[in-house]
Design brief:
Mean pLDDT: 95
Number of strands: 15
CATH topology of the largest domain: Quinone Oxidoreductase, Chain A, domain 1
CATH class of the largest domain: Alpha Beta
Strand content: 25-35%
Radius of gyration: 20 Å
Order of helices and strands: EEEHHEEEEHHEHEHEEHEHEHEHE
Number of helices: 10
Shape: globular
CATH architecture of the largest domain: Alpha-Beta Complex
Largest sheet: 7 strands, mixed
Helix content: 25-40%
Length: 330
């Protein structure tokens, strides 16, 4: 089978299309013919190897898992003899397991992994743009920011990187929970962020929300753009700063504000990828329901065939993608 493989860290050109052995499902596994995946900012970070925390996750001197791809959509082609939850021909989507591997024509997964049949109102290709961003946004907003649709007093939330993969889902999910959403993005993406529900949008190239005199209950930095120390004076008395971008700084700030000094204003990071499959499955079911009820939708910027995955990496490396970049297979 064809797969996009990288054997060393570096620029997009380290990713090569090669022939690798097609996997064979074990008795409790399903074999999925991948129809689509994505190239995410995390894929880019893992590939270039410049981030220390990324190296700790994927390999110190070289990549441990040579095939990237953190989410998929596809068709079940074969099932093991003990599989009971799925049938051959099911159209499914979900996040990858700890080995990634979705930038390939086939992937085996345990049937207990987070795999769902696709939403009725979304194409199989577009489903690939759902799991990673949405499964990050939901726990950050529900568990970290404590957003709830039953709140009598809507929280005011700033979403930094509102036009990205996590950001576009965060805007929509925060609105579902009844929050007043201020999105932060570049000028060219203002209309996009407004179209998915943001109440206000700030062009970060012209205005700095930390200097506008307003206070917010939550600041969610999806891209590691604005550190806690820059944002803390914009937080309300019991405000929460959340970030999806791990640094030594945020780890220390989280320790100081939640454990040592127990400040009313808190800095937090959630390791959403480390949750149990059962938790991810419950959240993906919730996300699927939101999609089928037209409460949220994936934002898709570009689509590339697997053979052009190097170009997809180059585009993601610019830092200007809107929503998701899809890779198609077959």
């Amino acid at each position: 089978m064809k797969a996009a493989v990288y054997n060393k860290f570096g620029p997009p050109e380290v990713v090569k299309i090669v022939e690798v052995e097609k996997p064979v499902p074990k008795s409790n596994e399903v074999l999925i013919k991948i129809r689509a995946s994505t190239v995410t900012t995390v894929d880019s970070i893992f590939r270039n190897g410049k981030n220390l925390f990324a190296r700790l996750a994927v390999g110190i001197t070289k990549p441990k898992n040579k095939i990237q791809g953190s989410e998929f959509s596809g068709v079940i082609e074969e099932i093991g003899d003990k599989v009971t939850k799925f049938n051959v021909g099911d159209h499914v989507f979900g996040p990858a397991d700890d080995n990634f591997g979705c930038h390939a024509e086939y992937k085996c997964l345990n049937e207990e992994h987070t795999i769902l049949t696709k939403p009725d109102n979304l194409s199989l290709i577009d489903c690939a743009a759902v799991p990673s961003g949405a499964l990050t946004a939901v726990p950050f907003l529900r568990d970290g920011a404590k957003l709830t649709s039953s709140s009598k007093h809507p929280k005011r939330i700033v979403i930094i990187g509102a036009s990205g993969s996590v950001g576009t889902y965060a805007v929509q999910i925060a609105k579902y929970y009844g929050a007043h959403v201020t999105g932060v993005c570049s000028a060219k993406n203002i209309e996009l962020v407004k179209s998915i529900g943001a109440d206000e949008v700030i062009d970060y190239t012209k205005d700095d929300f930390t200097n506008n005199g307003k206070s917010y209950d939550v600041v969610f930095d999806t891209i590691g753009k604005n550190p806690y120390n820059q944002c803390k004076n914009s937080l309300s008395e019991n405000g929460i700063y959340l970030t999806a971008y791990i640094t030594w700084s945020i780890l220390f700030q989280m320790l100081f504000t939640t454990k040592i000094f127990k400040s009313r204003r808190k800095a937090m990071i959630l390791f959403t990828g480390l949750r149990k499959s059962s938790e991810k499955t419950a959240d993906l079911k919730f996300i699927k329901e939101l999609i089928e009820s037209n409460k949220i939708k994936p934002v898709i910027d570009k689509k590339y065939p697997l053979e052009q995955i190097t170009d997809a990496h180059k585009y993601v490396d610019t830092g200007h993608k809107k929503g998701n970049v899809i890779i198609t297979l077959g």
